[in-house]
Specification:
By secondary structure, this protein is mostly helical. It is 75% helix and 0% strand. The protein has 8 helices and no strands. Helix 4 packs antiparallel against helix 5 and helix 5 packs antiparallel against helix 6. The longest helix has 28 residues.
Length: 220
Amino acid sequence: MSGKTMAGTKQAGGRYGLLLLVLIATYLLAAFSGGKVVEGTQVGLVAVVLVLALRTSPLPGWWPVAIGAVTAVGSAVAIWVSLSGTMTGVGAGELWKALLLLVTAVLIVRRVLAMPAVTIQSIYGALSAYLVAGLMFASVYAAMAHLGHSPFFADGQPGSTQTFQYFSFTTLTTLGYGDFTAAGNGGRAVAVLEAMTGQVYLATLVARLVAAYRAPGRNP
C-alpha cells in the first residue's frame, strides 16, 4: 500500500474516537437532564453525530452533500416541532432522531467492515454503532409513546427520555431488570427485535473485531 493510500485510510478511519465521545455526551445529556430544550439539543447532537459519521465513512459522489443538506433542514424542523410541546410534535422529532441514527449506524458498520485492517479505530467504530443502536431504539419507543393512545410502559410507569433510554439499553444488553416493561404488543415486538440485534451484533461483529485486533507493535 502506498504512503498516500495509507494516509487516506488513516484519515477516513481516524475520527471514531471523537464520534464515540459525542455519542456518550448525547446519552448523558438526556440521562441527567430533561425538558423541551434538552430534547431539541439532543436532535442537534444526533445531527452532529451523523455528520461525523459521514466524514469518517465517506460516500461517493454527491451523497454526502445531499444527506448533509437533508439532515440540516430536517433537524431544524424537528427541533422546532419538538419545542412546540405537542405530543405529535415531540413524537415526530423522535422519529426523525431514529431515522438519523439508523443512517448513522449503517454508515459506521459499512466503513468498519470495509477497513483493510482491524485497528483501535475499528473497535471505537463498533462501540459507536452499538451506542447508536441503543439511542435509536430509545427514540422509537419514545415516538410510539407520544404518537400512541395508551401508556407505553406497564403498571403506569412514567415515560420520559431518561426511562426510554434506560429501557432501551437494558433491552439491548439483555439485562432485563424488569422494572420497566412494554405494555403493548407493538412495544414488546420492538423490544424483542432490539434484544436480538444486540446479541447478534456482539456475538458477530464486535467479537470478530476484538479477535482480529492487534495492538501496534505486537508481533503477528
